[in-house]
Design a protein that fits this description.
seven-stranded antiparallel β-sheet; globular; single chain; five-stranded antiparallel β-sheet; binds adenosine-5'-diphosphate; binds magnesium ion; 6 helices; alpha+beta
Length: 292
C-alpha cells in the first residue's frame, strides 16, 4: 500500500496527498471504451500517459508554467509490491479553474452533434456546410463545465468568463490555444492529427499553470493523418483496435464489458506505445519501468 492519505480516484488516476503543497498522481492501466471501464488493464498504459504528459509539459514550457515537479517515485512512498515506477507524477497542488479548457481544431464528438442541430459550436456560429471531422477555419477554445458527476456541459466563452472570472478565462484561452497549436504542429510533422484536446488549468502561487494530464490519448482525439477524411469518423489512433473488437462482439455497451482476449490487449498496448514513440521520437523502452 502507498502510505499516503488518499485524496481521490477517477476512472484512471489515484491521487494521494504527499504534503501540504504536493500531490502524488498514480496513473493506472485502467482502460475505458464507450465510457465503460474494461476488466483487464492495458499493460504500460499508465506509463505512456505519464511519459506523454511529461514530454508535452517540457515542450510547452514557453507557453505557460505547469504543475509537474517530478516523475520519480518519492522516497517517502511505501512501494512494497506496488508497480509505481514510471507512472507517478509529483505535482504542485493547484486551485483548479471550474472549467475544462477544450480546444478543437476539427469538428468532431459533441461539437459535431451540436453543429448538426444548430450550426453552432459551444453556442458560436460556424460556417454552413461543414462536414463531420472537417478541419475548422482556425482552432477554437470551446470550454465546458467541470461536472463533479455526470457529463460535462459545453458552454460559451461568456459563460466561462462568468464561471472563472473574465481575466482568468482570457488567460486560459490564450494558454490553451497556444498549447494546442504548438502540439498540433509537432504531431502533424509525425503523422498524427490532434483533432481536439482538453486542458485543465489551475492557479499555483497566483499564476495560471497547466495541470492534470496533457495531450494524451485519454484527454485528446488522436487520428492517424492518413486515416483522416472529412465526412467520415477517422479511426482513433489509440482505441480503434479495441473499439472494433468490442463492436464485433455485439456488446450493448453497458457494464459488464466482455473479457478482452490477449491479442486485443496486446494490440491496444502497442497503439499507446506507438503514439508515444511517434510523437516524441523516443523509444518507450527507455521510460522507467517500461515492459515490466
Ligand atoms: N495540480 C493539481 N492540483 C489539484 N488538482 C489537480 C491538479 N491537477 C489535476 N487536478 C485534478 O485532479 C483530478 C484528476 O483526476 P482524474 O483521475 O483525471 O479524474 P477525472 O475522472 O475527474 O478526470 C481532476 O479533478 C483534476 O482537475
Ligand atoms: Mg481526468
Amino acid at each position: 500500500m502507498i502510505g499516503l492519505p488518499h485524496v481521490a480516484s477517477g476512472k484512471v488516476r489515484d491521487i494521494y496527498e504527499l504534503d501540504d503543497k504536493h500531490l502524488l498522481f498514480v496513473t493506472s492501466d485502467r482502460m475505458s471504451a464507450f465510457d465503460v471501464v474494461m476488466a483487464e488493464p492495458i499493460p504500460d498504459k499508465g506509463r505512456v500517459l505519464t511519459a506523454l504528459t511529461a514530454f508535452w509539459l517540457d515542450q510547452l514550457a514557453a507557453v505557460a508554467p505547469n504543475h509537474l515537479v517530478s516523475t520519480a517515485v518519492p522516497p517517502q512512498v511505501g512501494t512494497d509490491g506496488e508497480d509505481l515506477e514510471g507512472r507517478v507524477m509529483v505535482v504542485r497542488k493547484a486551485e483548479m479553474l471550474p472549467i475544462e479548457c477544450i480546444v478543437r481544431g476539427y469538428l468532431s464528438g459533441s461539437a459535431w452533434a451540436e453543429y448538426q442541430r444548430t450550426q453552432t459550436m459551444h453556442g458560436q456560429k460556424l460556417p454552413a456546410g461543414l462536414r463531420q471531422s472537417e478541419k475548422l477555419p482556425e482552432p477554437v477554445f470551446t470550454p465546458s463545465t467541470k461536472a463533479a458527476e455526470g457529463h460535462d456541459e459545453n458552454i460559451s466563452f461568456d459563460e466561462a468568463k462568468r464561471l472563472a472570472g473574465a481575466e482568468l478565462a482570457e488567460e486560459a484561452r490564450r494558454i490553451s490555444l497556444e498549447a494546442y497549436q504548438a502540439a498540433a504542429d509537432l504531431a502533424a510533422g509525425r503523422g498524427i492529427v490532434i483533432a481536439d484536446t482538453k486542458f485543465e488549468l489551475g492557479l499555483i502561487d497566483g499564476r495560471l499553470c497547466i495541470c492534470d494530464e496533457v495531450l494524451t490519448p485519454d484527454s485528446s482525439r488522436f487520428w492517424p493523418a492518413d486515416g483522416w477524411q472529412p465526412g467520415t469518423t477517422p479511426p482513433s489512433f489509440d482505441k480503434q483496435p479495441l473499439r472494433d473488437w468490442l463492436e464485433s462482439t455485439g456488446w450493448d455497451k453497458t457494464p459488464p464489458p466482455p473479457a478482452l482476449p490477449a491479442d486485443v490487449v496486446a494490440a491496444t498496448r502497442q497503439r499507446y506505445v506507438e503514439a508515444y514513440e511517434r510523437i516524441t521520437g523516443r523509444s518507450f523502452a527507455d521510460w522507467p519501468g517500461a515492459g515490466r
